[in-house]
Task: structure prediction
Amino acid sequence: MATQDPSVTVHVRYVTPAISVIDIEGEVTAFAETVLTNAYTAASTNSTKTIILNFAGLEYMNSSGIGLLVTLLIRMNRHKQRLFAFGLTDHYKHIFELTRLNEAIFIYDTEAEAVAAAQGA
Result:
């Protein structure tokens, strides 16, 4: 029996003890749940206050992928962490506006802007 593997890869980077970045490449769909959950676990330490999602390598995200982001956001809120993002195309920025995710996830154009905002808060 064939199993579907997620067509997404992630890489976790630690910018400072309080800031982690998750680089996302590929497709964020329901099949990415385990990969994203594991990335969040790796990115979240006792001192992590902000996790920044790098969407520069995003190829595709559907409604299930949006749902995964909402689940991640709820988990982070429980841990009093903030979720930032950068690298979204205009299309996905518009999707975030339509779904009102832009009200819960701070969106920046570049990693430097996101990191500076995280450090200033």
Observations:
- The chain has one domain: 8-120.
- Residues 29 and 65 are 4 Å apart (CA to CA).
